[in-house]
Amino acid sequence: MNLIEASNITKDYSLGTQTVEALRGVTFGIEQGEFIAIMGPSGSGKSTLMNIIGCLDSPTTGTYHLNQQEVSTLSGDELAGIRNKEIGFVFQTFHLLARNSALDNVMLPLKYAGVSKADQVNRAKDKLSQVGLESRMNHQPSELSGGQQQRVAIARALVNNPSILFADEPTGNLDSQTGHEVMQLFHNLHKQGQTIILITHENEIAAEAQRTIYIKDGLIESDTRKE
Amino acid sequence: MILQESITTAVDSIRANLLRSLLTTIAIVIGTASVIAMVGIGSSAQRAIDDSITNASARTLVVYPSRGRGTQKISAAPLSISDADALMKDKEINWRIAPEIRGSKSLKYQNESISIQVIGAREDYLSILGYEIDDGNFFTQRDDLARKRYAVLGSSVGAELKTSSKALVGKDIDLGGVTFKVIGVVNSEGSSGWSNPDEQIYIPLFTASDRVFGRDRVDAIRVEVPNTYTPEEAMISIERVLRREHDIGPGEENNFRINDWSQFTDLQKQATAIFSALLIGIAGISLMVGGIGVMNIMLVSVTERTREIGLRKALGATHQAILLQFIIEAVTLCIIGGVIGVIFGSSLYFLVTVFQDWVFTIPFSAILGSVMFSAFVGLFFGIWPARKAAQLEPAVALRYE
Ligand SMILES: Nc1ncnc2c1ncn2[C@@H]1O[C@H](COP(=O)(O)OP(=O)(O)OP(=O)(O)O)[C@@H](O)[C@H]1O
Ligand SMILES: [Mg+2]
Predict the structure, then answer these.
(1) Domains (ranges, CATH) in chain A?
(2) Record: contact B320-A83, CB cut-off 8 A
(3) Is the pTM of this model over 0.80?
(4) Which domain holds residue B391?
(5) I need a labelling partner for B307 at 20 to 30 A (CA). Which of A134, B112, B175, B354 fits?
(6) CA–CA separation, B300 vs B334, rounded Å?
(7) Which residues of chain B make contact with A81, given a CB cutoff of 8 A?
């Protein structure tokens, strides 16, 4: 059984009298351990789709199963639990808490998981060293480079050992060199068995994934797997 | 567990956003402090006025001869020294009685000459009015009976003669052509509204009637009413004696009138009521201003905080955890601000009471009211946007601008 099972997902945004159909019926499945790139032109609905399968937003119609669970039937608190334990999210704009240290930022998901203070610190430190930031733990985001900030965000996304790591254009705000380093990180994670879903505009980055889903005008145009 | 995490998160958040927290706190401090200071000052001022009303010197009735109606001049039956004596001799009225003769005379000293209000009075006049002697002495009963030409000056009379009142003690002055010896100076009392005791000169009653004004007629008789009498009861007793003295038959009108201090106090009470209403108004406005300050800071941070809430939700925060964090944050800031405000306001109020020589009474209702109000404002404007943000889908909250 697939880790993610989405069928006929639609999403409408109403802007006054006008309705934007961001997704117009998307169906696909994702298995454990896959590394998937989502591509498509700007405004095609990539972020909308990722927010829905990452449980940050709800679809207008369609069903979505995560780990065999129908997400639309879950309560707010159950969804919070899933976001906390099953899902790690990396955003294009990092979304770190500004006046908090890197360590505090990484500890945040563990706080909501009810982990003891000592464990919070230990696990957050572990993840920070895994992304190569052990010497920057007490720095605030404003004292870190873009690549370092994104690595803090990745450490935060991974700290609670999620089933799936979502990344919405994680290299979009980085130069190609740092972008490359971040991609290297994703590769290593994938090798360790981490399921990764990644949005990108760059063919070069998409080429690194095993499977590419191409979206256009709110519909899947192609879904290709490398051997 | 959730509570404990929320507390640490809230405290972390306050510390991390120190400037914003500080501004919120200051707004609450200003609101609370101004209310406490205003209400405190108001209630002390009111008390000071109340005290002066219950003060013995304020319990004085004043009997005046009736003014003739229309063009008629002074009434045919004026008040006289013997009326005052009759009041004093009455078995029921053994209160202090102070008859006075008033008139304007010219006062000369060396080359200076001024016109001055002269008061002929008895030896207990000063204590009945609650005045005190500053230098030298007041005249005695014997001085009065002997028609001594002694004068006691108001504190600023000397200045009008290009010297000082104190410097005139022991000197001779010329009062309407009669030479008087200055024997004392009265403390500065300040103007009472109708007359200024500092600009008057006091001489013995009999000296005034026999040597200066040449009349028995007095201009007023002050009667000090003891606490056991209401003004109405005291008036009836005074009327009884004076109607007998003046041979007024039943049904005839009085040919004198009695001024009641309660008219005066009613006015004063009205004035204090207006005064305290004003203070409450000012206090209310200060609270509003403080509240608007809190509101502004809270609202300004809504955008930032909405994204923060979106992020926290994306990382697994429950609705409850978010609300708890914001409630604790707001309550903490309000309590800190409230306590500092109470201390600040009370200190300000205390300083004023020291300078004004007022009683310091901490108005508990004001403390409670202002702290509760600012807590309410802080809570409302801290939680209301947070609640709204927590209801958004995380994706929407994260994109909020
Ligand atoms: N909150 C919203 N309200 C209204 N319309 C929206 C909203 N979010 C997205 N849209 C619209 O939905 C469509 C898909 O948007 P989406 O952000 O998913 O695109 P995208 O593929 O991620 O584009 P990009 O590559 O530029 O990030 C767009 O037309 C966009 O204008
Ligand atoms: Mg996008």
Answers:
(1) 2-225 (3.40.50.300)
(2) no
(3) no
(4) 2-52+265-398
(5) A134
(6) 18
(7) 316
